[in-house]
């Protein structure tokens, strides 16, 4: 039977292990951001104003929701099915303009 080598993290104090983990997370985040910027993504993450057509194309309070279906691993989720069992709340995220 093979024995497993000792875990190197166990030789550090809890504070040291936490600090090392935090440094690793920051390094990964900085690296990912650098790669994304080098690839040109996002092209313009923030605009000073929303698109000019938003007033005419955005849904208004009280508008009927469009027929919506989302493909999921376990099947398809439909807004109409959710509404048949009771009220539903839709949350919209604007993304970036």
Write the layout of secondary structure elements.
Elements: H1 14-38, H2 54-57, E1 69-72, E2 75-78, H3 79-84
Antiparallel strand pairs: 1-2
Helix share bin: 25-40%
* Major β-sheet strand ordering: 1-2
Radius of gyration over alpha carbons? Answer: 24 Å
Average pLDDT over all residues: 75
User: What sort of overall outline do the alpha carbons produce when their principal axes are compared?
Assistant: extended
Describe the structure.
The protein has 97 residues and is mostly helical. The protein has helices at 14-38, 54-57, 79-84, and strands at residues 69-72, 75-78. Helices cover 36% and strands 8% of the residues. The mean pLDDT is 75.
Which features characterize this protein?
97 residues, mainly alpha, two-stranded antiparallel ribbon, 3 helices, 2 strands, 36% helix, 8% strand, extended
Please summarize what this structure is.
The protein is mainly alpha-helical and 97 residues long. It is built from three helices and two strands. It is extended.
């Amino acid at each position: 039977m093979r024995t497993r080598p000792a875990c190197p993290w166990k030789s550090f104090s809890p504070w040291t292990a936490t600090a090392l983990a935090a440094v690793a997370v920051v390094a990964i985040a900085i690296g990912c951001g650098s790669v994304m910027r080098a690839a040109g993504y996002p092209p313009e993450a923030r605009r000073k104003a929303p698109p000019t057509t938003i007033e005419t194309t955005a849904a208004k309070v009280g508008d009927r929701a469009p027929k919506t279906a989302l493909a999921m691993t376990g099947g398809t989720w439909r807004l109409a099915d959710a509404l048949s069992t009771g009220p539903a709340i839709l949350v919209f995220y604007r993304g970036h303009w």
